[in-house]
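Q: What changes when calcium ion is included in the input?
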Amino acid sequence: MRLLLVEDDMMIGEALANLLRGEGYAVDWAHDGIAADTALRAQDYDAILLDLGLPRRSGLDVLKAARARGCNVPVLIATARDAIEDRVAGLDAGADDYLLKPFDFSELLARVRALVRRAAGHGQSRYVHGDVVLDPVRREASVGGERVVLSAREWAVLEALIVRPGQTLSRQQIEDKLYGWGTEIASNAIEVYIHGLRRKLGPDFIRTERGLGYQVPVP
Ligand code: CA
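A: The predicted holo structure follows.
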């Protein structure tokens, strides 16, 4: 999952970026409205965490411009507790949800997960196919009732695939979900994670579409 974090407060931004990366998200951090706008034009994101009070261009203007060009990425706005008008304006401009500052990190993570799930068209977080059961929220996986431990990166690859079961994602698309700006990527990294996942979840769980990429079956 790749997130755009838009936040001009360095302390808050750093804490959020670290938290989200620790959860296995690829995070691009834009520090002002113009940078956010540029990032949104250049990259597909699974969700945006958008501060409204920003230098150079307000969060509301960034959101309005994105929606006006047909960008339908899920947007979670972060606003101050007393700014009811901002929240209303944000929702009216096409935000999907909002969080009141200061917010609890576990609530933020839950709302991001819910947003990504809804955008993918299903409210269910658990994925079940055959004897494979995956719960990305609890980070629990089992095969035939036996617990399987997956690394944060393996979960990140898996989440990119199970949000869109039956759809093929290219290696580049999976890489985009895993790595933020300026991250060095070994050329065979995705293959290594896929190999690890097949070893743990069964050789046929992730299918290779020759020359196209990878997919998991519809649950
Ligand atoms: Ca701000």
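Observations recorded in class: The chain has a mean pLDDT of 89.
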